[in-house]
Specification:
The structure is a homodimer of 327-residue chains. Chain A is mainly alpha-helical and 327 residues long. Helices cover 73% and strands 1% of the residues of chain A. The first copy, chain A, has a two-stranded antiparallel sheet.
Amino acid sequence: MAALSTPAELAPVLEAGGVELSRLMHRTESRLAEVAEGHGANLAGHAAGTLAAGGKRLRPLLVFLCAAQGPPTLPAAVAVELLHMATLVHDDVLDRAELRRGRPTVFSEGGREAATATGDLLFSRAFAELTATGSADAVRVLSMASEGLVRGELMQRADAWSADVTPERYLERCRLKTATLFEAACRMGALLGGEPAAAEALGRFGERIGLAFQLLDDVLDVSGPPERTGKPRGADLVDGTVTLPLIIARTRDPELAELDLRQAAIGPARAAAVCDHIATSGALGEVRAEAFHQVAEAKAALTGLELPDSRRRALNLVADGVVERHA
Amino acid sequence: MAALSTPAELAPVLEAGGVELSRLMHRTESRLAEVAEGHGANLAGHAAGTLAAGGKRLRPLLVFLCAAQGPPTLPAAVAVELLHMATLVHDDVLDRAELRRGRPTVFSEGGREAATATGDLLFSRAFAELTATGSADAVRVLSMASEGLVRGELMQRADAWSADVTPERYLERCRLKTATLFEAACRMGALLGGEPAAAEALGRFGERIGLAFQLLDDVLDVSGPPERTGKPRGADLVDGTVTLPLIIARTRDPELAELDLRQAAIGPARAAAVCDHIATSGALGEVRAEAFHQVAEAKAALTGLELPDSRRRALNLVADGVVERHA
């Protein structure tokens, strides 16, 4: 049976979900491995490496937790993770990233061509997988989310090194680039798993925890520590990605306010020092507070729903888990 | 009404298809324009430019010609063209291509980021469009074709500058990178347009004319002339793409047999001279013969089918059109 890569902070969720949830997560892992291996020598290595590199599998988990019956949602759980990976592989090409989750990226191992193709393949595979559900609604939900991801990614690049990113614009970017896929996972779970009437509320739940997830990612980029996050502090600063911690810190710290955000100005060496400044400004607490606020809104979206206690508990645990983590 | 960009050699096909076919092609063009415009300022420009740059719209045409009833196949016609464009946009990123069809590429206008994102967006849009058909079979056919395109593209890059490409391997690459999408267009037309029993035979028809199409493309790359094809002769040689004209010519011309295929060896300046050598060897006639053979097989695939005369005539005209062209 394929090993699960779910991190420790989500263990209570698996516990709350019981044997059935663990079984579904194992089946997802096996199917992801099958999909990766079914592509001939050229691609199999890259796709398999990407999938084996793990990740939290948070999106498949959400698909299952939003479904009354898990098994019909299995292809959606696999599809949402494949789409997530497709975008990571393409992002790594654009960022010329050498490492992801401590492993060489497809880009660094195979070059631009192989990585672009592997991403395209994972995209196609995501939609192929989803057709097993026979649901045009699910395909529509996933393709809309996919558009959101692309638009979010473009927005991030358009706003690189910009001193004019407002908190509102930052949040809209997070919604597009992260929250849409969390929302899609929840919606597909509800639609395919026998809870169509709850799709709207569960979609809102997903969107909110997606926002919280991204907010916390951006906090961790500043606070580290690298031993736990697996990447150097201030990677966003080096890439020119202007996040809420920096936006808030600049309103409080005159030195940061005068900081030239252009790439030349912040190399990896200076990034850690700027991170210290941001942390000292108190901005991180404010961003964490915003993340907790989003989690509270996510939980509130569930209140009107009739859900079995174990699923409600598991969903609440996921919501807490996205902000109470260190990597 | 949106203008059609169907080239002159396909005019008889539109004539054979009558008012209904022209109407469907116009609706496809309008819908493509709508899809391109619906993406916010960031993307709309790039996507619209790509779509407006035209192309033969051969794949949508095939969708309609393989259908007994055209209107239900409209989303498939739009989707197959969107997918085709997505792959072109990504190919241009990988090739760092400045021009396509005489216009600046998304890559040259917007850079790698915008072009990768625009391609991803067109991919997503293709599948979103197809869900309007409500047919999981159609989504499956398109996603399988999409995989074929990716694998063909990778195979082409893996075989770049290789002196060991056999005719069989070349044909397999053409099948993957070109014929699968022609086949998918025909299959989707049959499945959605009320001809499911004919899907197999029409799919084979599509595959064969796809092969013929690629064979002729590879002849035109050698023979030009550039005033008609819109690109310099020998672009494949410069890119390192080893095609059948070169493979055959190397078995006949000792000078070509000794040619070093590595990139450094054939710059744009030398490419035209090598093209002359290939043409003199008689290889082009042989490749044309192979293309005509594929067209004959395509037509043979139709013989067992009961088709109205006008559609059979139109399909045969498309088959002839893919080899009797100069651009």
